[in-house]
């Protein structure tokens, strides 16, 4: 991850810092795809949900997987906002 952008992100949000601490490996994998430079389309988010939940058969694992995905997406949006890579609609 870009160190300067990461520092901006972590200064902007304690939540982002917590998510990074819990899910650093998967966040680094997510970052390798597009460096969080572009917003995700609705279709891309749906695809991530489908991929994340594929093959999960029990509710506890399903809910945990969705919580982690939500954290990953929130980290991405915080990154984009902190680094002025997206417009935040109010």
From TrEMBL:
Q: Which SUPFAM superfamilies match?
A: Nucleotidyltransferase
Which InterPro entries does this chain map to?
NT_sf (IPR043519)
Q: What is this protein called?
A: Uncharacterized protein
